[in-house]
Automatic annotation (TrEMBL):
Residues 26-68 form the CBS domain. SUPFAM superfamilies: CBS-domain pair. InterPro entries: CBS_dom, CBS_dom_sf. This is CBS domain-containing protein.
């Protein structure tokens, strides 16, 4: 059964796969003039930066705290606290809510700070891969449930618009000519399977208390949008906005819940 793999996916991508190595992060000594750092962060488009003392990271500063302030960073450095650090082996599913609470986190390996991670890092390939794996697993699970309910797959096909029926039949015929072992369901797209569930009370009920309208608004529409976002790198998957992270957290939880139904 496909749904048994959801836990494997949830732990496949770790924080260390997303982090920016600390060697590539702009860090400033505690004795650096505030004005210099404020200008440098503004030019780089960064909101925060680690602060070092004697070569060791001792805290961080927010650019907003430095505006029109005199002196050095020492007076404006915020200390490292437990809420600001995360282990490199932390699964992405656990990282998401931590990032919602803090816009960036220091990544630790043992006693060492080895990187930082922020919402922007979710747009890297590992972040996209995580959600792609979840959506793909759900697509396979939908196909599995559809086959189980429709012994005669032709009946499932007839639930789709005529234009989609024709394309699926054409695809199936092509695969059969090429000696590819396939059935009607295998020739369907993700959107086809979602539509079949929407139109089938027994299938919707297997996933929870979903009306056709609720399935469309809470499952079909957001998951199709998520699939487009993860497959096209020109599209932004996550931003610093709390609503953006909350959306990903909700989609992650929903997908894993659906996969366990």
């Amino acid at each position: 059964m496909i749904h048994g793999h959801s836990d494997d996916i949830a732990t496949a991508i770790r924080t260390r796969h997303l982090q920016t190595p600390i060697a590539r992060v702009l860090c400033y000594g505690a004795d650096t003039p505030v004005l210099d750092v404020a200008n440098a962060l503004a030019d780089a488009g960064f909101d925060s930066a680690p602060v070092t003392r004697e070569g060791e990271i001792c805290g961080y500063v927010h650019r907003a705290d430095l505006v029109d302030q005199p002196g050095t960073l020492a007076a404006h450095t915020r200390p490292l606290t437990a809420s600001r650090v995360i282990a490199g082996d932390t699964p992405l599913a656990t990282l998401l809510p931590a990032l919602r609470r803090a816009k960036f986190l220091f990544v630790v390996d043992g006693h060492d700070i080895v990187g930082i991670v922020s919402p922007a890092d979710l747009n890297k390939q590992p972040g996209r891969t995580y959600f792609y794996l979840l959506v793909s697993a759900f697509e396979l699970y939908l196909a599995e449930r559809t086959r189980a309910l429709f012994a005669d797959q032709e009946k499932a096909l007839l639930l789709l618009p005529q234009s989609r029926q024709e394309r699926i039949r054409d695809r199936l015929a092509t695969e059969q000519r090429e000696d590819v072992v396939a059935d009607i369901v295998a020739a369907m797209d993700f959107t086809d399977l979602l539509k079949i569930v929407k139109k089938t009370d027994a299938l919707r009920g297997a996933f929870g208390d979903y009306s056709a309208a609720k399935w469309e608004s809470e499952v079909s529409a957001p998951l199709i949008e998520l699939r487009h976002a993860v497959m096209h790198t020109v599209r932004t998957l996550a931003t610093e906005a709390p609503t953006s992270l909350q959306r990903l957290i909700s989609l992650d939880e929903r997908l894993r819940r659906l996969l366990s139904a």
